[in-house]
Amino acid sequence: MTTKTFSKMRNIIVSLEWHSQFYPKILYTLLEHNQTVIMKSNIGHIQKWILRSGILFCSMFILLFSQLCIAQDGEAIFKQNCAACHKVGGGRMVGPDLIGITEKRPEEWLIKWTKSSQSLIKSGDADAKAIFDEFGGIMMPDQALSDAEIKSILAFISSKSTASTASAETKPADAAPVHSSENATPDVIELGKNLFTGSVAFTSGGPACLSCHNVDYKGVIAGGLLAKDLTTVYSRLGGDAGLLGILGAPPFPAMTQAYKAHPLTEAEITALSAFFYSVDKDTVNQVAGFNNYLLFGGGGGLVGMLILIYVIWFIRKKNSVKKDIYDRQLKSI
Amino acid sequence: MTSYLLFVVLPYAALAIFLIGSIYRYRSNEFSVSSISSQFLEGRKLFWGSQPFHWGLFILFFGHLIAFLFPSAVIAWNGQPVRLLILEIAAFTFGLSALFGLFLLIYRRLTTRRIQIVTSKMDLVVYAVLLTQIISGLLVAYHSRWGSSWFAAFLTPYLRSIFVFDPQIEAISSVTSLSLKVHVVSAFTLIGIIPFTRFVHFLVYPVDYLWRSYQQVIWNWSRKHIRTSRKHSEGYKSTNN
What's the gap in Å between the CA of A123 and the closest CA on chain B? Predict the structure, then answer.
């Protein structure tokens, strides 16, 4: 801080001292402030050092951040979108084992299939039809992924395939999925619904499904948006077989983490499965649950808070005193 | 690799810099550990910026801390949808209020001449990081709804794994929400730059101000002289009292 600025600062302080007889509290704080300013003027070299390291740190951050935006992480996308039904080595689940798939089929075909398996089947592709029939006519949902994202997934699959070729063994096809949820009683469905929303807690204390997932269903508030919408999950995962597998041992890393220490019991899984069956079936009765609670509630809350701040603190401020000091300072500069 | 850098290396670097840097700064320059208040240079805009900003950040900081320390309590509270809504809307309110306050503070710093004089480059860095932090937080709350629940479910275990020196980054790196990753990364960045910026003042929050009694400061100067002086340096009688 230059001498000139410092003397200006001193002017302000000294002129305020006159007020001290009336407002000792103000002056007390001011004294502390002044002290800080003096100290600041003595630490030029440390400030420079601090500034340099800070800039270095920030440029590091920006560098890392830009990399984060550019990188297409095939593994992450695979885990998020595909791992519920597919493994790479280790046998078939709801869908086929994808080991070596990049060698079996051309990339173009795989991209088409991933984007919309049904349109590929309809276009008369014999291979596509055969796969669809082999897996019990369970439709693979269309994936809203870009070509680049699918290519990064395929790159991940092919790298993983080469890593674990020998160890992989394909299991024989599972029996057709058992649709026991179709016979579920309303009580079980109700239990599943309450488990989903959290009104009935999981026995091991895991978080409610609603935290991350949404379903459109009567009487259920809008669910989380972090993970996939589960309104049609029952048919998407091929009924009970797929659901029981996933709920028993969630293949998605975030879900794995959430339920690692809090596994679901079998009864809970059955109830949830029954609930998802009901959600999928009663698709007509859906009621949109979310009415921008956050935006309107938050906006209203902000207004309320500003009023509160005004009432409690602003009125307490003595505007006239400070305004005069402020104007005088400007005049004296 | 990027995940490893962002969610393991960065946190540890940030925490180490924070610890060592803060202690070093306090030991070498005790009096620089402050927010370097500019209230006496400009008070009115500061009030409307600082109040909503600090209340917002204060509550959100403790909200995150509670979810970190008592995740099961948060999950239990969120069991009833009504309670979940109350918590989320309240948190969103404080987020908006912090953003509102920060905008005013940035506006004040950029437009007030007297504040420009005392603005350092690091102040601008502070604003950039805070802006990233608050906006990404609001985006997460809005686009990846019910963050209070899933924070307790899978971010608390990640953060704990950092503190027990056994980092588990599977879950956090699998998340597709970019704003969440930005939020986490900028949070650690914020911690890392604490010793180099005015952020240090949160370490020396004058808690005892809440209950200490008023202090009277007595000046051993001639009142009469000050009253009659026409020199600015000695002050002169104001017109309003």
Answer: 32
Instruction: Determine the structural domain holding residue B53 and report its residue range.
Output: 2-211
Q: Does B37 touch chain A (CB under 8 A)?
A: yes
Structure tokens at B124: 């601008």
* Residue A61 tokens, joined: 């951050």
Interface of A with B in 227-266 (CB under 8 A): 252-258, 260-261
Residue B99 corresponds to which tokens in the numbers above? 């953003």
Question: Does some domain include residue B220?
Answer: no
Q: How far is residue A276 CA from its own chain's centroid?
A: 22
pLDDT, tens digit, for every residue of B156-203?
A: 999 999 999 999 888 888 888 899 999 999 999 999 999 999 999 988
Residues of A in contact with B233 (CB under 8 A): 10-11, 14-15
CA B118 to chain centroid:
20
In angstroms, the Cα distances linking B68 to A283, A310, B183 are: 37, 33, 16
**B204/B67 Cα distance (integer angstroms):** 24
CATH of the domain at B112: 1.20.950.20
ipTM of the complex: 0.79
CA B214 to chain CA centroid, Å, is 28
Q: Is residue B230 part of a domain?
A: no
Hey, what are A220's tokens?
A: 């259920």
Give this prediction's pTM.
0.67
Residues of B in contact with A80 (CB under 8 A): 174, 176
Show which of residues 54-93 on chain B sit within 8 Å of chain A, judged by CB atoms.
55, 72, 75-76, 78-81, 84-85, 88-90, 92-93
- Tell me which residues of chain B, numbers 178 to 197, contact chain A at a CB-CB cutoff of 8 Å: 178, 180-182, 185-186, 189, 192-193, 195-197
Tell me if B222 is assigned to some domain. no
Domain-embedded: residue B233:
no
Query: Nearest-CA neighbor of B122 among B56, B190, B185?
Result: B190
Q: Look at chain B and report how many structural domains it folds into.
A: 1
B98 Cβ contact list (under 8 Å, min separation 6): B52, B53, B55, B56, B57, B60, B134
- Asked if A305 lies within 8 A of B93 by C-beta distance, the reply is yes
pLDDT in tens, A168-197: 444 444 444 455 777 788 889 889 999 998
- Look at the alpha carbons of A26, A31, A36, A40 in this order and tell me if their dihedral is positive or negative: positive
Q: Does A324 touch chain B (CB under 8 A)?
A: yes
Among A27, A57, A322, select the one facing B193 at the smallest CB separation.
A57
